[in-house]
Amino acid sequence: MDPAQVESDASTRSRVSRSILQYGPSTANDLAKRLNLTPAAVRRHLAVLISLGHLSSREQRVYGPRGRGRPARVFALTDSGRGEFYQAYDDLAIRALGYLQQVAGEEAVNEFAKQVVAGVETRFHAIEGEYETPAEALVEALTAKGFVASLQPVRSGVQLCQYHCPVAHVAAEFPELCEAETRAFAQMLDSHVQRLATIAHGDGVCTTHVPHPVVRDDKTIEGKAAR
Fold this sequence. Notes:
Helix content is 55%, strand content 15%. It has ten helices and seven strands. The protein has a four-stranded antiparallel beta sheet, with helices on one face. A three-stranded antiparallel beta sheet has the order 1-3-2. It is globular and about 55 Å long.
């Protein structure tokens, strides 16, 4: 094959992977529109990425009435595919944290974990007033820090999804990072959030459930107080 064509194909596959990283699991048609390619060309590159173990696929979930025909397939990055984007300093960070834990104890690791999420908190508080809900502001703050987040509505609230985690390999060794992040989410959103999945533990997406706010009925409260 022409070396120029090989290089062009590799570049296009990189664009496909990066688009999935940025926007989350996507169909071939989604990718074709974003990248200005034909669906057939996208499917060719998707097939290669799947053969390399960089992508997985599943049928698209359809909410509500479903039309005729088979559901479209959705393509998501695997841990191997996501690893193509990781920085080369993971091993050094893991060794450094291990040393910190050894000489200064578990509390030092917890304090370090708080510092990791502090940048997201600073960004969140700077822009919170610009968004309709705190969750929307948190999505922007996370994405600005490289976590590529979005909100997915569910019946009981919303799910905060993070499609990329710059510290996933380190967090796999030191879950204190994920725990500190979850506590920070609860504080920023003033909500009892629940972490459902993490990339660090092998899941495709970090998912945090944020329940609907509890709406109190003032009349009910007054009635209980009068009893």
